[in-house]
Amino acid sequence: DPFAAHGVMEMLKSAALPAPDGAPPSVEWHGLALGDRVIAVFIGAVDRLRYAGMATSFENEDDAIARTSPGELLLADLILDQGARGRSMFDLGVGEAPYKTTFCDQTEALVETILPFTLRGRIVLARAQALRAAKHAAFALNRRWPGALKATRGLVSRLKGRAQASTSSDLREG
Length: 174
Description:
Layout: H1 8-15, E1 27-34, E2 37-46, E3 50-58, H2 63-66, H3 70-84, E4 89-91, H4 98-103, H5 119-144, H6 148-173
Parallel strand pairs: 3-4
Antiparallel strand pairs: 1-2, 2-3
């Protein structure tokens, strides 16, 4: 949960309020509700010309609601709203997702440079590269076989549970 760290939610909430000098908020929260139930949220950093997506969340537990694509409905309305307010750039953020190709007409390449100067730096770099490769592989697998990532996480969780259960029983026997 990227919002769990101390102070993150407070910072986002305060950034969504006008500044003490009257300047407009630097973060906007947008939501789509079904009655009293919020079914999609989109949070973005803004300036005069650009809306940069920071976080999105949408209902996916209720199949009837998920089938209506509440996140995409909110996003379509949000893009129209931002254009009407004079913003000429709408950035959906880092990463690949099917909805991004629906709404975006261009992709901006990102470059990351890590220069290790010490042995410790080379170890950190190797770990970061391995984690990045694993993340890309997991997302690619999930695109080819939707649900594969969730099923794999479930399997790993069950295996961990069995390993902990057998460790616990070994401790009681010993």
